[in-house]
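BUG-416 | component: ligand-complex export | severity: low

The export step for zinc ion jobs runs without errors, but we want the raw record kept on the ticket for reference. Input record follows.
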Amino acid sequence: MSINCGIRHSRRPRWPVFFLTSIICFYISILFRLPESPGGSQQFVGQFATTGLQAEPATGDVAGGLAGADSLRIERQHGPVHLTLPRGYTLPEPQQRVFETADYQLIAYSRSFAQGELMYVEIRPPGSTAGTDSADAGSQAADDSSADSDDGPAKTPRFPEENFQIMVSFADKGEPVDRRNWGYRAFIALAPALTPGAHPLRVSIGEPGHLRHYGHNIAVADTRFPVYTSQLDLGRFSDQTTSYTAEELALIRRSSAHKATAFARRTPLQIESRFAHPRDEHHVTSPFYSTRVVQRYVIKNGRRQNLEPRRNTHTGLDLRGLTGAPIYALANGEVAIAEKMFFEGNVTFIDHGMGILSVYMHQSELLVQAGQQVEAGQLIGKTGATGMVTGPHLHLSLYIRGVPVEPLSLICLPVQ
Ligand SMILES: [Zn+2]
């Protein structure tokens, strides 16, 4: 956004403000820019709605029992993953695509292989029994009932430790892989802007210098991201005459530098078979990647002159939360940022490794510090209305090396 340091006019047309306020009193957006990241410049939009104080119906899902969670949350096993979820919230079963080659078995998982979702890929040696990793580090081989040999327990196939290379790309973009005892895994964004249709998932594997190359098609489904065409007047953000104080500008600049540092981090992957929903209730108040049209204007001599409106895209998910409600870490990681920013308010960035960041905005209270290790489900802060908001909620974002994905598309994945 442009920042003009002009005079701020107090006289404004009254009826449009009143008219729009009556519509959007619980529904406003804010926009701000992220610094340049490796993926190019991104517009980062916070957008939220509070919908009053209706209580969530307490339809308790008690299958799986309670194990230490508070009364609003439930712990359960979902495939290999230990989950902490709001009571009554059920996760979709992810879809999977299986590809076999002479060199490996590849399984890709995604909620529905649609634009804006996360894709999780496992690559195992040929002959592996997918999904039966369960700590097969060699110490528990005795209970392997699937052994088809009379000579003792079957040996789990392994990729060579040395003189071995594997490279993965999706939609012609290289993606990092993480080595596990059973093979390799990758977390790949099905970017919201990816064209629906088939995209190549390529694997190169073998001895360095003698790689064999394979390609598989992943069909990416269309996601109907909501588009709201009514134009919003966002007050200070629509009014291009708005100026910022020196302290605000200093905070904005400092925040931008810190965000750039967080986005540039490349640390070892910390994601294990444990996820949590970030709240103790599930109520989406503004969906991921919805687009809104925002008015822009200047005030000259007390008159409003309209400029070209701007389309803003919401790169996160807004979840209901009154001031003081708990916020939990989605997955294990290290706190990269926990501080007050101008637009985001009190915000926490958790670095899950390999360029995967989760972001929690507008908190009333930060309960962790930069540099601290956190675990999935750990209380990290309280929801609030700090930053450019008019009502409390949690804005949650998930970035895969700079690409935003629907944050909850992570937690249904059978990550090992
Ligand atoms: Zn938001």
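Assignee comment: Attached the raw record above. The domain at 14-57+224-409 is CATH 2.70.70.10 (Glucose Permease (Domain IIA)).
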